[in-house]
Design goal:
The protein contains 6 helices and no strands. It has 96 residues and is mostly helical. It starts with a helix and ends with a helix. 14% of the residues are buried.
């Protein structure tokens, strides 16, 4: 699910894959693989995304499957994360 939120953050800022890749210091192919969910970004890359888009790392990590905080079960967290992404995607579509 993290791949969906990375795409939404980029699209919300009207940035191209090339622009994000340049700011992250990776290839455009790497960004494409993150956004397609083919490769999971490293913690360092997630931190860079955080800085680029002004979003706390914890907010991005909410959309990951790993449950390191133990506050919500992974199933519950992913359920809520999916609903949040769905709403944001819907809002983004209505914006265009």
């Amino acid at each position: 699910m993290i791949h969906r939120i990375l795409t939404l953050m980029r699209e919300n800022e009207s940035m191209t894959i090339h622009e994000v890749a340049h700011k992250l210091g990776v290839s455009s192919e790497a960004v494409i693989s993150y956004e397609k969910g083919e490769v999971r970004p490293t913690p360092e890359i997630i931190t860079r995304y955080s800085k680029i888009f002004g979003v706390p790392v914890s907010s991005i990590m909410f959309f990951c499957k790993d449950d390191s905080d133990g506050i919500l079960t992974t199933e519950s967290r992913l359920y809520f994360a999916d609903k949040i992404v769905f709403l944001v995607e819907k809002l983004m579509k209505s914006k265009h």
